[in-house]
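Let's practice the habit of predicting before peeking. Look at the sequence and jot down your guess about where helices and strands might fall. Then scroll down.
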Amino acid sequence: MYTTNTKQLTAMRRVVYASARAFVSPRMEGGGNPVNIFVSSGPTTSDERVDLAKTCPWESVVIENDTESSNNSGSLPIFHFFMPSGEEVSFCGHAAIGACSFLANKKSIISNKSSTEVASVPFLTAVDGAKYNSRVMGNEVELVMGMQHYETECNPQSCSLKDILSELGLDMSDIPSSDDGISWPTYINSSVARRKTLIPIRTADRLHAATPPLNPTKFREMCDSIDDSTGIYLYSTFTQSEIDGSVAKGSELAFECRQFPRSSGYPEDPATGIAAGALAASLHKRQIIKSRDGIYRMYQGTSMGRPSKIQVKIGGNKSKETNPSLDISYSGLVVFDSLSHSDLK
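Done guessing? Here is the structure:
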């Protein structure tokens, strides 16, 4: 359960600061991807938002036009997504999930009570002005998005798959063979927001044998050379019953994943919504591995001791056209760890 800590300062604008974890695994403790959420009672400048983001060791979101804080009932909340460096980005899946949960459950979070409310939370993204909607059911959030899916093959002349694997402590023998007749998305850049490079690994054991980049500078240059990839997303398959004995779907496959970002201030990510969405979109394009309920289940963060679960459902265009428009639904659990209040100086 979260704790509350209040600083009394002299400025007029009160900032609510919440620390949360999104895409938490329901069966294992300590998981999820951390995000810091800031809500100001008044307008913030670009410099102020960057300064807030730089106080965080991971991604953050600054919310403007929160109707309850600003009394601006005619405007949708605007989400500013940030990396720890202070770089503002167009979208961050787990940050959006956390922010929507906070806005829907703010009263119960502040009063330190659990919530079972169902609410709709629409919002705008600051960078591109896109509008999205979410459905919040207690601590579970479903985020529905209409996104364009882009996919390109990586140029091996710029950087080879072998070199990428070597930098992560793997080799070409870790790539699955084609004996099963499935053409897994291999060494391609897939994007529903930012480019992620998809690489299948033959077993979960070999996936967890991968190590963070040996040389971060070299790794960033490698990612830059393959069309400015923002990270390498390794994935392997396993049956659902291997990780969740309560689900009687032993023949259905889920995915164990790991994401090594190009340069985010940390070597590995415990849950990456846009990467999970990119993988699901590329699998959907090839019409492979469909569960009975149409949900792709991605598990991540296991090797970090921060197990996470991301559920992705793809709808819309089912053709193999080049850049189809898809309806992408993300869902996951959110846990709040701390809450504080301060004033902007």
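How did you do? Residues 1-11, 245-250 have pLDDT under 50 and may be disordered.
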